[in-house]
Design brief:
By secondary structure, the chain is mostly beta strands. The longest helix has 18 residues. The chain has 3 domains: 98 residues, no CATH class; 88 residues; 308 residues. The strands form 10 sheets. Strands 1-2-5-18-21-25-29-33-37-41-45-49-52-56 form a 14-stranded parallel sheet, with no helix packed on it. A 13-stranded parallel sheet has the order 3-6-19-22-26-30-34-38-42-46-50-53-57, with no helix packed on it.
């Protein structure tokens, strides 16, 4: 029997014994190389997570600060665990002194990538490596000496071309991985080439949770991973993720996915969820897009709050109910987060704060996006599905991305890719948008209809738009593709004497004062006035005394919120005295 197998059997027996023993702290020190596998005590910690065996409920599993584990941590309903070991909370955290978090990281070395014969030159500076036989051949994220390579390319012709300050470096096509290496054979240019591709014996997620309840992840750095740095699968519920740094070099940060029984009770709070992308304004959309938090197919009654979410190449958060037949992504709360892509979207210029999509009525519905700060991004949030509420948010510094021909520098866009109706955009403050702040647009999936835009403040819209959209704050597309809408009690202002204009049902913009609704639309009590913010240029959108936004404030009932608004826009008295409050 091999030493490694003996160690695993020992760990399994220990885990079985611990299932009936009192809860205890179990210590892991991946920097330890002698006395392995260890005993899990603070004096003799395990040398790796695999040595700890199946994770049993009631125990705390602690990795030493300042260490890096390249084992994937699995919290699953392992056949080796009795029912008693599945009950009780599993805590995964840190021990020891020092400021550095323990790191759990997955990135898999490209086998034989240091062998020159593994690479074949197929064009000027373009090299091919065969990935035939891999369980999953697509790296998703490719790392060259630890640097996240720019890509994948949308098409082969893009490889080695310059986009902004970057060169498009790689893509995977069938059994080939193509890499741009103008300095010669990649085996001689790079010391380590790695990614998220998976062979049979390799982990794909730093932390995988499946079929478990009551799991707490606290104070870790979680990096790499093919689908998510933390992946949560079917049968899981009541998972808390807090005070972590998540997502560096990961395809996505946190991914919760089920196509059957919904995952529920997720509580994701007070984390830094940062892709680590610092590609700059490249003006290019990679073929594979990442999400900071991805609720996919069947996730319900969960909350994402108090996080800083940075530089994801698709969405900071995606409520994604695309999958036909899946129960849906419903009843979730996203509140008090900070979404951004670096100053003036300088980390990357194709990312949006959030998106919502559903394949049928009810699939993406009943979600509440409340009191978030969204700024310095380049693609407006997609608010689709139905009966979702986007309320009390700050949105500012939205830029147009050169990666798209159509304008992108807006706050919120409703567009029926699949289905988009009866969503609420209310009491938000939207400022300094390169294009219109809100668009109700046409899509390929049906009619965009029934949306309500109420009680918002629009400041400095369309300041960097194409001529036909210059100074436009609101776009409502042509009927019948865009159906009836409600636009009420909004306050608009463009500084420096600029007019406030709308694009309404035609391609010709008109001044707000000349705007009147067509049959089926309800347009009333919209006005132009300076809102009088404290210091909007520095992100302080508190309303001064005498602000017209404090007058003519409509009442509005919103599922999931109690209270009533005291002013138009997002500011409702400050964080300590918000007029709106979340219902528990």
């Amino acid at each position: 029997m091999s030493t490694r197998l003996a160690a695993l059997l020992f760990a399994l027996l220990l885990a079985l014994a611990s299932a009936t023993a009192p809860a205890r702290d179990i210590y892991i020190d991946p920097s330890r190389s002698t006395g392995c596998p260890g005993r899990g005590s603070i004096e003799e910690p395990y040398c790796g997570w695999q040595d700890a065996g199946p994770l049993a409920g009631g125990n705390r599993y602690l990795q030493r600060r300042g260490t890096v584990s390249r084992d994937g941590v699995r919290v699953t309903a392992s056949p080796g665990l009795p029912a008693s070991a599945l009950a009780g909370e599993v805590f995964i955290g840190a021990y020891g002194d020092g400021p550095e978090r323990p790191t759990i990281r997955v990135d898999n070395l490209l086998p034989d990538s240091g062998d020159e014969s593994s690479w074949r030159l197929v064009g000027p500076g373009l090299w091919v490596y065969r990935v035939a036989g891999f369980r999953i051949p697509d790296p998703q994220v490719l790392l060259l000496d630890g640097r996240r390579a720019f890509g994948p390319a949308r098409q082969r012709e893009d490889l080695c071309s310059r986009r902004g300050g970057q060169r498009v470096e790689w893509m995977q096509a069938g059994d080939d991985l193509l890499l741009c290496s103008l300095r010669g054979n990649p085996a001689t240019v790079f010391g380590r080439i790695s990614g998220m591709q998976v062979r049979r014996d390799e982990p794909w997620a730093p932390i995988l949770i499946e079929g478990r309840r009551q799991v707490v992840i606290d104070g870790l750095a979680v990096e790499g991973g093919r689908w998510g740095a933390i992946e949560i699968r079917t049968g899981s519920r009541d998972i808390e993720i807090r005070h972590c740094e998540i997502g560096r070099d990961s395809a996505s940060g946190i991914r919760a996915w089920s196509d059957t029984t919904p995952i529920s009770g997720l509580d994701i709070h007070d984390n830094l969820i940062d892709s680590g992308i610092r590609w700059g304004a490249a003006g290019y959309e990679p073929a594979v897009s990442g999400e900071g938090v991805h609720f996919n197919a069947a996730v319900t009654q969960s909350r994402v709050h108090g996080n800083e979410v940075i530089a994801w190449s698709h969405n900071g958060l995606y409520l994604d109910a695309h999958l036909p037949g899946a129960p849906g992504v419903t009843g979730n709360r996203v509140d008090h987060n900070d979404f951004h892509c670096g100053p003036d979207s300088s980390y990357f210029d194709y990312c949006r704060p959030f998106g919502i999509d559903g394949w049928r009525p009810g699939a993406a519905s009943g979600n509440l996006i409340f009191a978030n700060r969204m700024h310095d991004f380049s693609v407006g949030a997609q608010v689709n599905g139905n009966d979702n509420a986007v309320i009390g948010n700050l949105c500012y510094n939205a830029l147009n991305s050169a990666a798209r021909r159509r304008p992108t520098g807006m706050c919120f866009r409703m567009q029926a890719y699949l289905l988009s109706h009866d969503n609420l955009i209310a009491f938000n403050t939207m400022a300094y948008t390169a294009d219109a702040a809100v668009e109700l647009g046409t899509g390929d999936g049906g009619i965009t209809a029934g949306h309500r835009v109420i009680g918002n403040i629009f400041l400095s819209c369309g300041h960097d738009a194409v001529p036909e959209r210059r100074d436009v704050c609101l776009v409502i597309g042509p009927a019948p593709a865009v159906g009836p809408a409600v636009i009420e009690d909004n306050l608009f202002f463009n500084p420096d004497g600029r007019p406030v204009r709308v694009l309404y049902r035609t391609g010709t913009a008109l001044d707000l004062a000349a705007w009147s609704g067509m049959d089926g639309d309800r347009m009333q009590r919209n006005r132009v006035a300076q809102p009088l913010f404290a210091s909007p240029q520095t992100g302080d959108f508190a309303l001064l005394l005498g602000s017209p936004a404090r007058d003519q404030v409509p009442d509005l009932e919103v599922p999931g919120l109690a209270g009533r608004p005291i002013a138009l826009g997002a500011w409702q008295g400050g964080p300590a005295n918000e007029a709106w409050r979340l219902l528990r």
